[in-house]
Specification:
The protein has about 100 residues and is mostly beta strands. A hairpin with a 2-residue loop joins strand 2 and strand 3.
């Protein structure tokens, strides 16, 4: 199986509040694979900010895939919402490519 080498994943936060991203998955055929991109189990992304992660994604080089990000919205000073899930449109994943996941709710 081919891999997509040096692929950059960009997560943009356009929700209006800080988010805490906790899970990143991609589709390999009919299987969902989890990629450990968040340090310490989750990454906080300020409202209006974005974070980039460069990885080698196994099994999807030159193939169609979609990304799924699980995240929570800041709710008050120290509370977080229930999980939200954003799944992208299907696209072809290539070496040295990039794809931006925009979180909006």
């Amino acid at each position: 199986m081919a891999k997509a080498e040096n692929f950059t994943i960009v997560i943009q936060n356009k929700t209006g509040v800080e988010v805490r991203a906790s899970k990143f998955e991609y589709r390999d055929g009919t299987k969902s694979k989890t990629e450990n991109i968040f340090f310490g189990g989750s990454d906080r992304i300020d409202e209006g900010a974005e974070k980039e992660y460069t990885r080698n994604l196994q099994g999807i080089g030159e193939e169609s895939t979609e990304f799924t990000v699980t995240y929570q919205l800041r709710s008050g000073k120290s509370n977080w919402s229930a999980n939200h899930v954003k799944t992208t449109d299907t696209f072809t994943c290539k070496d040295n490519g990039s794809y931006t996941v925009v979180l909006t709710d």
